[in-house]
Structure formats: C-alpha cells, structure tokens
Amino acid sequence: HLVEEALTAAVERGDLGPFDALLAVLSRPYDEPTQPQYAQPSKDGQDDYRTFCGT
Fold first, then answer.
1. Other residues' Cβ atoms within 10 Å of the Cβ of residue 6
2. Average pLDDT, the chain
3. Rounded to whole angstroms, how far apart are CA atoms 48 and 24?
4. pLDDT greater than 90 at residue 54
5. What does pTM read for this prediction?
6. Could you tell me how far CA 24 lies from the centroid of its own chain?
7. Contact present, 16 and 10 (Cβ < 8 Å)
8. CA dihedral for 33, 28, 38, 48, sign (positive or negative)
9. Measured between alpha carbons, how far is residue 28 from residues 12, 33, 38, 45 in Å?
C-alpha cells in the first residue's frame, strides 16, 4: 500500500516526495523508526491488493 501511494503521487501529481521518503526508510530497515506511519499496517480494504506480471 505504501508503494502504491508513492507511485500514485509520482505519476498523477509529479510529486516524488512520498517516493523519496519511502526509499529512505527502506534503505535502512533496521534503524529505529523515526516515521511511525511506515510501521503501520494497511487500512481496511487495502490488504487484498494483488499485482500480476503482464510479460
């Protein structure tokens, strides 16, 4: 769900801020979290997301 939000912001609004923030968090997975929103589970209705390879 976080990747989808970051991609949507980048594609639809040209906003790379959410992508850059997510990348920074994922680049250091064992650091103490300074942004607790990245440690939260997905909201109801977002946990059944599936993606398929079209190639």
1. 19
2. 84
3. 26
4. no
5. 0.70
6. 11
7. yes
8. negative
9. 27, 9, 12, 28
